[in-house]
Specification:
This protein is α+β, with helices and mostly antiparallel strands. The protein contains one helix and four strands. It has one domain. It is rod-shaped. The termini are far apart.
Length: 86
């Protein structure tokens, strides 16, 4: 990928970039993954040697019911241990 005033090679953007001029870049991005699943990434402007694209892993958040079940289980285990030692 290149522009009138600089070039981007790998993760380094080299050249003189001025924020007062609007530029348009076109580029192809290929991500290779070892595991299946959805791929989400953010794109950023090329400013001050910034990143062109970065992968963001998506994580599932435990549901409140799952956390309640785990908490009740831990309380039950604690109560059972307390009865045994009494």
């Amino acid at each position: 990928m290149s522009a009138d005033t600089g070039a981007c090679v790998g993760a380094d953007a080299v050249g003189t970039y001025d924020r007062s001029v609007e530029r348009t870049f076109e580029f192809d991005v290929t991500f290779t993954r070892l595991a299946g699943g959805d791929l989400t990434f953010d794109t950023y402007a090329i400013v001050d040697r910034g990143i062109v694209a970065a992968e963001r892993d998506t994580f599932t958040t435990p549901e409140p019911a799952t956390l309640v079940l785990m908490g009740v289980s831990l309380l039950g285990i604690g109560a059972a241990r307390r009865r045994r030692t009494s």
